[in-house]
Write a structure and sequence with these properties.
The protein has about 450 residues and is α/β, with parallel strands linked by helices. The chain folds into three domains: about 1-40 and about 195-270 and about 380-450, FAD/NAD(P)-binding domain, CATH 3.50.50; about 45-85 and about 185-195 and about 275-370, Polyamine Oxidase, Chain A, domain 2 (Alpha-Beta Complex); about 105-170. The protein is built from 14 helices and 21 strands. The strands form five sheets. Strands 1, 2, 9, 10, 11, 12, 13 and 21 form an eight-stranded mixed beta sheet that branches. The longest helix has 23 residues, at about 105-125.
Length: about 450
């Protein structure tokens, strides 16, 4: 049985950040990872000869972002793509009305103004909401007070539902009224033309990561902890658990003694959403050059609502669409071919026979992934932002949690995972860890290895 100063469970962004910072401080650390790769829900497929980010894709707001500062320090190339957080306008978009007809500039501008006006009122309705109110409750109150014609209300209602599903992976009626409070975007959004997994791969270079080590039990000992995986057992003074919330909720890991009440309550109250991606490459572009988003409103977008032009990554005409919440779970019961065909049918309802059969496609199934059991966390009715941070610990004996679900200021993001790993490392060391020095050390190691 090997002994370490710290055992980190999970080689995603949080786990690798924590492990690397501890190793830089001279601690002996091992990372136990169930998969055969690092990155966790940062997963880039390169089988087509170009990167396809099947998991995380964006930094949502780079202004005053610690994650963006790290990306800049590592000189990782990015492309500005500020439509990743379901903006209603502000970028070239092709809008289609409820009957599937293309909207002109005036109609699109009116639609954007309608949503922005109701959103302003919605913020006040949420501020006045009561415990137990859902996001569906507050949006209905704001829509009712808008005074807009019924057909325009229907379009906004559909937009609000999709916004929740695609940002939280949950049905609008299951989300707490405050479930989108932390989703404000500050600054541009960016994507990664070389693949987002470059970040965890570079952080994790040289870290002792044991792949195919699925952890089943974490037990307290007189001098620390024993972590039992299917490929062996490890002991350490401190343990940092960074597996996704869905894995914790499945009780795939047995804790002895049982988790303290603050941790178990947070795990029970928080929700794990399903957000799946469908990439489709076409032999030629049927949408306008320069369009960022195709968006169908009202009845036309009841099932498939938005498609994003991500052709810049491969140079091949490519659209990305999302299946989240109830739709995402349902489509996991279908084959990839059935999912793609369904989305293509929706596009043909808008563009007709100009939509050719895709030449390639990728479909994700994060809800079926045993090492994720969902895409990212959200606030169901009855949960609060405090539940995220309450899960982090530290708890008696040196048990800590990290990952996006433990970072209340920015959950459900890579930025939140990075910040939580940093927090866990500082907690173990008992002192601050300078993030600029952390980035500089990564670059220095890479230069030394290249000599």
């Amino acid at each position: 049985m090997e002994r370490f100063d710290t055992v980190v469970v999970g080689a995603g962004m949080a786990g690798l950040t924590c492990a690397r910072m501890l190793m830089d401080a001279g601690r002996r650390v091992v990372v136990l990872e169930a998969r055969e790769r690092v990155g966790g829900r940062m997963c880039t497929d390169r089988t087509g000869g170009f990167p396809v980010d099947l998991g995380a894709s964006w930094i949502h707001g780079i202004r005053e972002s610690a994650l963006w500062a790290l990306v800049e320090a590592l000189q990782i190339p990015t492309r500005e793509f500020t439509v990743g957080s379901f903006q209603v306008g502000g970028r070239p978009m092709e809008h289609f009305d409820a009957s599937g007809r293309r909207m002109d500039a005036q109609a699109s501008a009116r639609w954007a103004a309608d949503v922005e006006a109701v959103d302003r009122d919605l913020a006040e309705v949420i501020a006045r909401s009561s415990p137990g109110d859902s996001y569906l409750d507050v949006t209905e109150r704001a829509l009712e007070a808008s005074g807009l014609p019924p057909e325009r209300i229907l379009e906004i209602r559909e937009f609000f539902r999709h916004r929740v599903e695609e940002q939280c992976g949950a049905w609008i009626g299951d989300l707490d009224a405050h479930g989108l409070d932390e989703d404000a975007i500050d600054g541009d959004e960016v994507i990664f033309p070389r693949g987002y997994d470059e970040l965890p791969r570079r952080i994790g270079a040289g870290v002792d990561v044991r792949f195919a080590h699925t952890v089943h039990a974490v037990g307290r000992t007189p001098d620390g902890w024993t972590v039992r995986a299917d490929a062996g057992s490890f002991t350490a003074k401190d343990v940092v658990i960074t597996v996704p919330l869905g894995v914790l909720q499945s009780r795939a890991i047995e804790f002895d003694p049982p988790l303290p009440r603050p941790a178990s309550d947070s795990i029970s109250r928080l929700g794990m959403g399903v957000f799946n991606k469908v990439f489709m490459q076409f032999p030629e572009r049927f949408w306008e050059e320069g369009t960022c988003v195709i968006r169908a409103l009202g009845a036309a977008g009841e099932r498939w609502h938005s498609w994003y032009d991500v052709s810049v990554i491969s140079g091949i005409p490519t659209l990305l669409t999302f299946a989240a919440g109830p739709l995402g779970r349902h489509l996991q019961t279908l084959s990839d071919a059935e999912v793609v065909a369904d989305s293509v049918r929706a596009l043909r309802a808008l563009y007709g026979e100009r939509v050719a059969e895709p030449i390639a496609s990728w479909v994700t199934r994060w809800g079926d992934d045993p090492h994720a059991r969902g895409s990212y966390s959200h606030l169901p009715i009855g949960a609060s932002h405090e539940d995220h941070d309450a899960l982090a610990g530290p708890f008696d004996g040196g048990l800590r949690f990290a990952g996006e679900a433990t970072w209340g200021r920015e959950p459900a993001t890579v930025g939140g995972a990075y910040e939580s790993g940093h927090r866990a490392a500082e907690s173990i060391l008992g002192r601050p860890v300078d993030r600029a020095a952390f980035a500089a050390a990564i670059v220095a190691r890479e230069r030394e290895a290249a000599r």
